[in-house]
Specification:
Layout lengths: L5 H7 L37 H4 L12 H4 E2 L2 H12 L5 H7 L12 H11 L6 E7 L2 E6 L12 H4 L8 E5 L12 E2 L2 E2 L8 E5 L1 E3 L18 E3 L3 H10 L3 H12 L2 H6 L1 H4 L12 H18 L15 H4 L3 E4 L19 E3 L5 E3 L4 E4 L3 H13 L4 H8 L3 E5 L4 E7 H4 L2 E2 L2 E2 H8 L2 H4 L5 H26 L1
Parallel strand pairs: 2-6
Antiparallel strand pairs: 1-3, 2-3, 4-5, 4-7, 8-9, 10-15, 11-12, 13-14, 14-15, 16-17
Helix pairs in contact: 9-12, 12-19, 14-15
């Protein structure tokens, strides 16, 4: 008996026989003996849990001062932090410019922390790329001392470097739907998809200034080693594959809609389990799909046919930057300002999504022709493509004159974790929140995000077949 109707259901048992509310459930030991029916396929409990393959994971960074320590604009972030570290600038001036930096909490003595950090100075090299939300990479100042960052995750930070890759996963999701993994090469926020996820790396650094795992000796430490359990290492050697193959196969498997729907009940109980193929060629094909998924999820990776080169036919007409009545958009006239009501400030400076301006409509004949052409190249019919993209499309407005034309409905509604991706991206960039208009490349970025999501949706038949 669940949530808001639970009390009413319990009261009904006073006038019922009670037995009709109950049924016998066989609770699998492998799933932790849940006291409810759990939907999963028969083989699911035999698959290894994600941490049995990749044993080390980290929670994301929590600043508790995002408004001051995270920014879309690097120059603006550096300017703000340069003032904070400047001994010539008084605390009152910082309090006016960035209130959160001078607001003490139970864990953060604001004046004492500033006094301590000013003696050492600003570390501009610690302004790093930051995976703040899905498809939303920003800049963040990572401070190694004090509680300027509420949870700095030093043990995590040292493993983020060029060449390493990460996927997110939760042990339990707060909502019924399984959160498909986010992929990133950057340091990630603890709310990147939801607050209870862990970030799983492909590699771990073994530098002398980082803690070693219990089974590592300093003499044997090297620059990096795969984040694999002994069982995983045995398995990849037997299969003759690489750690990257296993990582990318995992990303592909966990992104398949059928994986999520067939095992929905079990995925509520624990970490996701990963099916391991018994043939090398099957794994190689799956890893290739995972490589595609990773590129599509990474907004800083160009994807041929999607965001670069000759764009695929079915994507070419999606999210086209347009002006009401035609003509060119003019930045100096405010045409690139997001003012349609996509976001507003909530309690504690949290950005809340707004209604915005969205016009849902039928596809035009030209838009359907483009989808049909692209679908054929993917081995799909037009009807199959529309089942994945949505039977309707939307025009998404920045303001009264500028909009992105033809964002298919399921692209617009696409979520990762608890976030509706494009709507969330826009909410943070509402003019009243951001304080400035979008740059032309940011306007084009929404086009790229829409095309990336559409490509993921059109990859779903292949992911399910895999």
């Amino acid at each position: 008996l669940w949530v808001t109707t639970k009390r009413d259901q319990l009261l009904e048992t006073a006038v019922q026989d009670g037995r009709s509310l109950y049924r016998v459930v066989t609770s699998p030991v492998e799933l932790g003996l849940p006291y409810l029916a759990a939907k999963f396929i028969a083989a699911y409990p035999s698959w290894p849990l994600l941490p049995r393959l990749f044993p080390v994971s980290f929670p994301g960074v929590k600043t508790s001062r995002d408004d001051a320590l995270v920014d879309i604009d690097r120059d603006r972030l550096v300017e703000r932090l340069t003032q904070y570290f400047d001994p010539q600038v008084g605390d009152d001036d910082i309090r006016k410019a960035s209130p959160s930096l001078m607001t003490s909490t139970e864990r953060f003595d604001a004046p004492a922390v500033r006094k301590q950090l000013r003696r050492r100075g600003f570390l501009e090299t610690n302004v790093v790329r930051y995976c703040y939300r899905p498809f939303d990479i920003r800049w963040m100042y990572w401070e190694p001392e004090s509680k300027l960052l509420d949870e700095k995750r030093s043990e995590y930070f040292g493993h983020v470097y060029d060449g390493n890759v990460w996927l997110s996963a939760g042990q339990r999701n707060r909502k019924d739907e399984f959160y498909q993994p986010q992929f990133t090469r950057c340091l990630a926020d603890h709310h990147v998809v939801e607050s209870n996820v862990g970030m799983f790396p492909l590699y771990l650094r073994r530098d002398s200034d980082l803690p070693l795992l219990a089974n590592q000796s300093p003499a044997g430490a090297s620059t990096r080693e795969p984040n694999l359990s002994p069982e995983s290492l045995t398995w990849i050697r037997k299969m003759g594959v690489t750690p990257e193959d296993l990582f990318r196969h995992t990303l592909a498997a966990l992104h398949a809609p059928e994986y999520r729907s067939e095992n929905a009940g079990a995925l509520r109980q624990d970490w996701p389990r990963v099916p391991l193929p018994g043939a090398t060629d099957v794994l190689a094909a799956s890893a290739a799909l995972g490589r595609t998924v990773a590129a599509l999820l990474d907004p800083e990776a160009a994807v041929g046919g999607v965001t670069s080169g000759s764009v695929r036919a079915e994507l070419r007409r999606l999210a086209v930057v347009s002006r009401t009545g035609g003509g060119s958009l003019k930045a100096d006239a405010g045409d690139l300002t997001v003012s349609a009501g996509w976001g507003h400030a909530g309690k504690g400076g949290i950005t809340m999504p707004g209604k915005g301006k969205l016009v849902e409509r039928d596809f035009t004949a030209d838009e359907l022709t483009a989808i049909d052409e692209g679908a054929k190249a993917l081995g799909l019919t037009q009807d199959q493509a529309l089942r994945h993209l949505g039977e309707k499309t939307c025009d998404v407005y920045l303001n009264d004159v500028a909009y992105w034309r033809n964002v298919p409905l399921k692209v617009w509604e696409y979520t990762i974790g608890g976030y509706q991706v494009i709507k969330k991206w826009l909410s943070y960039r509402e003019h009243d929140i951001l304080g400035q208009a979008l740059l032309s490349e940011e306007v084009r970025e929404v086009t790229n995000i829409a095309r990336r999501i559409a490509a993921i949706l059109l990859l779903e038949p292949a992911l399910d077949a895999n």
